[in-house]
């Protein structure tokens, strides 16, 4: 008989062991090895059985064992030391506290739909969540005052297994929050906090017949120094359909997803207000939206400002935008949540419409009202960008792709000027670097992980020691892969006799390539199988064998992705190669850690440029692995010819099959003629000297770049501090800045159709030489605007064969004197600093000290036709 309800009964710890609960409830244990050692010492066998989950450990440990530990003076000393170390970590000043920066925000709210903190808290599906988890952990390590916000999914993401014929099967094991390292947010009188978001009346499937709204409770996880708020709709006040809103990550259809995102954005802001009111935590000055899923947070902040501070919608929009950062993580439109406009109208209009946030203003924020857009949909990323003054991609190449993808929002500006920057992702060393490597690094290269400096010292480290460590990590991976492989085959119905071959699956001395990720088609899981016979010959080479460890999950609704997994599983089950290529199901953080630590080579072969960043290869590099990848995401930025191998990309080919064929052939050639040759080329001491030189070079050059400490410092310096300064400028003196900017923008937009460049002339272009200056004179009709409302610029530089300016420079022209009929004349001198084909143009753009940049409003006035242009050879 099955239980009708599941819950967790927590252990009552003896008084001397009470500090264990303090340690369990702070997720720092997930990356702090000394704390994990202490948990292991509670009951080593049970620690293995509960898969290193300390909450389950304390829930299942025998009472008599706890009584013995309560009298074990050595264990109690360890417990006291570990607890004191945590308290020191939580209170001592860190990097952020040492910054002499008055603009540093007192709190940053970070919103994400998923977080990969630890495998014991399965609230993540892939790279977005893993990055968010690393962001919080690194904020804790650096002392950055971030407050995380997300949803608590009662079934998390699915557990993956395989059918007998290799088809992906999904299972959603129930999660009891009381069995997780979480506490419930309560009012001071002990009452659980309830967050409510309004829903349309009559939506009985969720809100009830009287439109009672969707209610949620708030769980708090403590990620080191960072509080993380997780909203959970499974409360008694909700009817069952509403309770199921937070049932699983990325589950359900349009209504379901929309409600999840309303709860995350709108409910998340309300949860923050409750948390800060109850605990006294500083209110956020900056709001960081990690992808479009949380974009509705901007609407809630506007509602607050209108209802509580008396601002108009436009004034509130300016105040909210100033302190908001939006990070996009996808380079493909299919990766963005888009809802039918009618659905948004239903949930934000009618009886659910608020006076402060009219539905037509909501619809306008998410409208694809630009060339090539779909006017029938509401785009969450577009709304997120319109509600944020600062926008970034997650690698340099992704920033370029994003500027092209979203350029329509800033029409009239060249792609290069679209205000979408980039901060390349990084990884949290404490989570992803093997303990042996961390200890070795601390001994040989003290403080490099914390400071990011001194990495060149790795070139002086013993190559024999690096090789010994690499062998240890490879053996660990092989042992665990065999265990997982045996479990998978038994689960698929194989007998004990049919799994005896697994004892010899993989070889701890063979070159090991890793490939693990989500399985959408663009990541090309099966590119390696384009020529199965050639792959077989690589795997079974008698002198230079190769083995490949593969893992990955397809979205439950992605039948194509499941077919790719089935294809690879069937090939890996062939008797001749199954000891050299394995697919390990249920890819999660624990398996990811083993793979990035144990593989010699990390392989990545997406369709360029569809990988926004990709961080697994960074993790492998920090563990002494080399990368074999298409030049996409971060690898395009930091590949230098010596830190791995770049797979040539056949960009531009219209036929996808032909592109795959060419890139697969290049992949095979690299493995056969370069990767395996270098790995197996040994000296008299048995060391692959050239390989180890590449490993050292990789660690020395990539180490300071791929760390999340570098990433988060970039966010603080380039985005958070400027956003806080902008926000303060807006709210000062009872929002005088926001009121003034909104009025100014309204006046500029009304006048802009009348702004015109009427005349351009120049002198000095007759056979000019490098070092000369070109005098430019421009007459502009300001359409009733004041000269201080605009900047008139000369845009100049090299031109291509079609006279398009390439990487131009900008020179603001001086307001010389009034011309006839209210027009204004501007002058300036363009420097001719390089020889070759040269050109210039002029433009008028809005100018205000509270704008983040020239392109913020998307308004530009250009000459009606090329004038005063000289193309020639400048000597």
From TrEMBL:
NCBIfam families: more_P_ylases. Belongs to the glycogen phosphorylase family. PANTHER family: GLYCOGEN PHOSPHORYLASE (PTHR42655:SF1). The keyword Nucleus does not apply. Phosphorylase is an important allosteric enzyme in carbohydrate metabolism. Enzymes from different sources differ in their regulatory mechanisms and in their natural substrates. However, all known phosphorylases share catalytic and structural properties. Residues 13-121 form the DUF3417 domain. GO terms for molecular function: glycogen phosphorylase activity; pyridoxal phosphate binding. The lineage of its organism: Bacteria, Bacillati, Actinomycetota, Actinomycetes, Streptosporangiales. Gene3D superfamilies: Glycogen Phosphorylase B. GO terms for biological process: carbohydrate metabolic process. This is glycogen phosphorylase. Its cofactor is pyridoxal 5'-phosphate. Its EC number is 2.4.1.1. It comes from Actinomadura livida. The modification N6-(pyridoxal phosphate)lysine is found at residue 619. Keywords: Allosteric enzyme, Carbohydrate metabolism, Glycosyltransferase, Pyridoxal phosphate, Transferase. It catalyses: [(1->4)-alpha-D-glucosyl](n) + phosphate = [(1->4)-alpha-D-glucosyl](n-1) + alpha-D-glucose 1-phosphate. It holds the Pfam family Phosphorylase. It is an enzyme of class 2 (transferase).
């Amino acid at each position: 008989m099955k239980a009708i309800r599941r819950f967790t009964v927590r252990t009552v710890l003896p008084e001397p062991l009470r500090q264990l609960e303090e340690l369990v409830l702070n997720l720092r244990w997930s990356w702090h090895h000394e704390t994990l050692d202490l948990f292991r010492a509670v009951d080593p066998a049970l620690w293995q059985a509960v898969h290193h989950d300390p909450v389950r450990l304390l829930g299942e440990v025998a009472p008599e064992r706890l009584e013995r530990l309560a009298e074990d003076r050595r264990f109690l000393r360890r417990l006291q030391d570990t607890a004191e170390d945590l308290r020191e970590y939580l209170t001592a000043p860190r990097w952020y506290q040492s910054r002499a920066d008055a603009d540093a925000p007192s709190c940053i709210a970070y919103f994400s739909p998923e977080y990969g903190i630890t495998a014991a808290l399965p609230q993540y599906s892939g790279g977005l969540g893993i990055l968010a988890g690393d962001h919080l952990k690194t904020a804790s390590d650096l002392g950055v005052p971030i407050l995380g916000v997300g949803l608590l999914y009662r079934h998390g993401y699915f557990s993956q297994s395989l059918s007998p014929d290799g088809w992906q099967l999904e299972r959603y094991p129930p999660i009891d929050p009381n069995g997780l390292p979480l506490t419930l947010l309560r009012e001071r009188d002990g009452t659980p906090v309830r967050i409510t978001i309004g829903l349309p009346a009559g939506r009985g499937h969720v809100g009830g017949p009287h439109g009672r709204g969707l209610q949620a409770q708030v769980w708090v996880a403590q990620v080191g120094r960072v509080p993380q708020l997780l909203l959970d709709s499974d409360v008694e006040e909700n009817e069952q359909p509403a309770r199921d809103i937070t049932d699983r990550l990325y589950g359900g259809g349009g209504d379901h997803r929309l409600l999840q995102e309303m709860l995350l954005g709108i409910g998340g802001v309300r949860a923050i207000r409750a948390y800060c009111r109850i605990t006294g935590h500083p209110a956020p000055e900056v709001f960081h939206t990690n992808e479009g899923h949380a974009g509705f947070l901007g609407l809630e902040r506007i509602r607050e400002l209108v209802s509580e501070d008396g601002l108009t919608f436009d004034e509130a929009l300016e105040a909210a935008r100033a302190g908001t950062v939006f990070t996009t993580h996808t380079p493909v439109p299919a990766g963005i949540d888009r809802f039918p406009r009618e659905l948004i109208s239903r949930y934000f209009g009618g009886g659910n419409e608020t006076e402060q946030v009219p539905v037509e203003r909501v619809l306008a924020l998410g409208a694809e009202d630009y060339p090539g857009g779909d006017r029938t949909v509401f785009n969450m990323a577009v709304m997120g960008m319109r509600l944020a003054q600062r926008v970034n991609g997650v690698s340099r190449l992704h920033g370029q792709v994003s500027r092209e993808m979203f350029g329509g929002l800033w029409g009239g500006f060249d792609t290069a000027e679209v205000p979408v920057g980039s901060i390349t992702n990084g990884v949290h060393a404490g989570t992803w670097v093997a303990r042996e490597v961390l200890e070795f690094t601390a001994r040989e290269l003290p403080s490099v992980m914390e400071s990011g400096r001194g990495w060149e010292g790795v070139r002086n480290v013993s190559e024999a020691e690096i090789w010994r460590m690499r062998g240890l990590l490879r053996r660990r991976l092989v042992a665990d892969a065999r265990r997982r492989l045996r479990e998978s085959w038994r689960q698929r119905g194989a007998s004990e006799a049919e799994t005896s071959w697994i004892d010899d699956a993989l070889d701890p001395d063979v070159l090991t390539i890793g490939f693990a990720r989500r399985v959408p088609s663009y990541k090309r899981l099966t590119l390696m199988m384009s020529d199965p016979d050639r792959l077989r010959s690589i795997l079974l080479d008698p002198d230079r064998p190769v083995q490949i460890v593969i893992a990955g999950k397809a979205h439950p609704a992605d039948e194509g992705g499941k077919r790719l997994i089935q294809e690879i599983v069937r090939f890996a089950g062939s008797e001749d190669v199954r000891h050299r290529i394995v697919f390990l199901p249920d890819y999660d953080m624990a398996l990811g850690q083993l793979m990035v630590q144990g593989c010699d080579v990390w392989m990545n072969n997406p369709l360029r440029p569809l990988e926004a960043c990709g961080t697994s290869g960074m993790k492998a590099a920090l563990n002494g692995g080399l990368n074999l990848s298409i030049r996409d995401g971060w690898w395009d930025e930091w590949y230098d010819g010596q830190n791995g191998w770049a797979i040539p990309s056949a960009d531009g080919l219209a036929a996808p099959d032909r592109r795959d064929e060419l890139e697969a052939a290049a992949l095979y050639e690299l493995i056969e003629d370069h990767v395996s040759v270098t790995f197996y080329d040994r000296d008299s001491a048995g060391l692959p000297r050239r390989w180890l030189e590449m490993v050292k070079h990789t660690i020395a050059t990539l180490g300071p770049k791929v760390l999340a400490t570098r990433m988060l410092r970039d966010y603080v310096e380039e985005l958070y501090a400027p956003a806080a300064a902008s926000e303060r400028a807006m709210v000062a003196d009872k929002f005088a800045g926001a009121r003034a900017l909104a009025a100014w923008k309204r006046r500029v937009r009304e006048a802009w159709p009348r702004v015109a460049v009427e005349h351009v002339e120049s002198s000095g272009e007759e056979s000019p030489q490098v070092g000369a200056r070109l005098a430019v004179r421009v007459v502009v009709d300001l359409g009733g605007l004041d000269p201080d409302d605009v900047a008139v610029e000369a845009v100049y530089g090299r031109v291509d064969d079609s006279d398009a300016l390439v990487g131009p420079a900008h020179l603001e022209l001086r307001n010389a004197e009034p011309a006839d009929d209210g027009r204004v004349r501007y002058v300036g001198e363009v420097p001719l600093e390089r020889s070759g084909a040269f050109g210039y143009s002029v433009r008028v753009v809005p100018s205000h000290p509270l704008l983040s940049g020239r392109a913020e409003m998307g308004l530009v006035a250009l000459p009606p036709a090329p004038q005063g242009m000289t193309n020639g050879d400048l000597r």
